[in-house]
Amino acid sequence: MAGEKPESALTVLLAFGANLGIAVAKIIAAVVTGSASMAAEAAHSVADTFNEVLLLVGLRRSTRPANRRHPFGYGKERYIWTLLVAVAIFGMGALFAFYQGVETLLGHHHGDEPDPLVGYVVLGVSFLLEAISWQQALRQVRSDARAEGLSTIVHIRRTDEPTSISVLLEDSAALIGLLLAFAGMGLHQLTGSAVWDGVGSVLIGVLLTAVALVLGRINLNLLIGSQADPRIVGDVRARLAAAPEVEQVVDVLTMIVGADRVLVCARLDFRDVLTSVEMERACVRLDHELREAHEEIDEVFLEPVPRDDPELRARVIARYGPALGHKGTATS
C-alpha cells in the first residue's frame, strides 16, 4: 500500500499554520473596521483552518493497512474527508460571505469604516502568508505532474491524490478573495458607499462556491470509482495481449482504490492447448509482470473466459457500446 506522502503532510501543515494566524487577524480586523468583505474573508480563513484539520485526518486514516472487513484498504477514505472540505468551504465560507454581502447591500451595515487602515494591513500580511502556502502547494502539484509526465492541468483532472489539489485551490481562492476584499474596502472608503463592500463579499461567496464545486466533483468521481490513468490501462491491455498464453483480451477493468493504488481485473481467453497448470502459472507470471511494470497496481485479478460466450459479450457491449464491444478489448 502506498503510504502517506511527507510532502502532502507538509503542504497541509503549512497551510494550517498560515490560515490559523490569518483567521485570528481577520476576525480582529473585521470587528475594528466593520467591513462586510473583511468579515467574509474572516469566515473564509476559519473554514480553511478547519479544512486543513480534515485533510490531515484524511491523510492519516487513509493509510491504515487492509484487513478482513476492508480487504482493499482504506485508501478511499481520503476522498471522503476531502469531500467534507468542499462542503465546509461552501457551508462555512460561501454562505456566510453571501449573508454578509446581501445584508450590506440591503443597507444593514455599520456605517463608515472607523479605521480601514487596520484592514489594509491585515489584508497585506494575509496575502504574504497565503502566498507562501500557495507556493508550497503549487510546487508539490507541479512536482507530482512532472513525475507522471503530465501537464499541471491534466494532472489536476486525473489525480487520485486530491489533498495537495485541495490546498492549492483553497489558497488560490484565498489570494483572489483578499484582492476582492481589498477592492471592496477601498471603493467603500473612496466613494463612501458600503455597496462596494457588499459586492466584494458576494463575489467572495461566488468564488468559494466555485472552488467547492470543483473539489466536490473531483472527489465524487474518485468515490464513485474512476478508472486508472489511460496510459496504465493501455499498457496493461498490451502486456496481456502480448502474452503467448493469451488468445485474446476480452475485457479489462481498472479502478482507483486510493492514492497511487489501482485495482486491475481482466477477462482473458487463454489458448485451448494450455493445461490447467500452465494457465495457473501464466496468471501468476502476468500478475508479477503487471506489478513490476506499474507500482500503482495493488491487486490483479485474471479470469479465464471464452470470447464467444453470448452473455459475456452482451455485458461488454452494454458497457462500451457495439463498436468497442465487438473488438473484445475495451477498457474501463
3D architecture notes:
By secondary structure, this protein is mostly helical. The chain folds into two domains: 6-224, Cation efflux protein transmembrane domain (Alpha-lytic protease prodomain-like), CATH 1.20.1510; 230-327, Alpha-Beta Plaits. It is built from eleven helices and three strands. It has helices at 6-33, 36-61, 77-105, 116-147, 152-158, 162-191, 195-224, 230-242, 276-293, 310-320, 322-327, and strands at 246-258, 261-270, 297-304. The chain has a three-stranded mixed beta sheet with strand order 1-2-3. A hairpin with a 2-residue loop joins strand 1 and strand 2 (261-270). Helix 1 packs antiparallel against helix 2 (36-61) and helix 1 (6-33) runs parallel beside helix 6. Pfam families: Cation_efflux. InterPro entries: Cation_efflux, Cation_efflux_CTD_sf, Cation_efflux_TM, Cation_efflux_TMD_sf, SLC30A9. Residues 12-223 form the Cation efflux protein transmembrane domain. It is a multi-pass membrane protein. This is Cation diffusion facilitator family transporter.
In short:
The chain has about 325 residues and is mainly α. It is built from eleven helices and three strands. A three-stranded mixed sheet has the order 1-2-3.
CATH topology heading of the largest domain? Alpha-lytic protease prodomain-like
Rg over CA atoms, rounded to whole Å, is 26 Å
Count of alpha/pi helices: 11
Unreliable stretches (pLDDT < 50, length at least 5) are: 325-332
First and last CA, distance: 22 Å
Instruction: Provide the number of structural domains.
Output: 2
CATH architecture of the largest domain: Up-down Bundle
Percent of sequence in beta strands:
5-15%
Order of helices and strands: HHHHHHHHEEHEHH
**How is the main sheet built?**
3 strands, mixed
Please give the number of β-strands.
Answer: 3
Task: Round the mean pLDDT to the nearest integer and report it.
Answer: 84
Neighbour order of strands in the largest sheet? 1-2-3
Fraction of residues in H or I helices: 55-70%
CATH class of the largest domain: Mainly Alpha
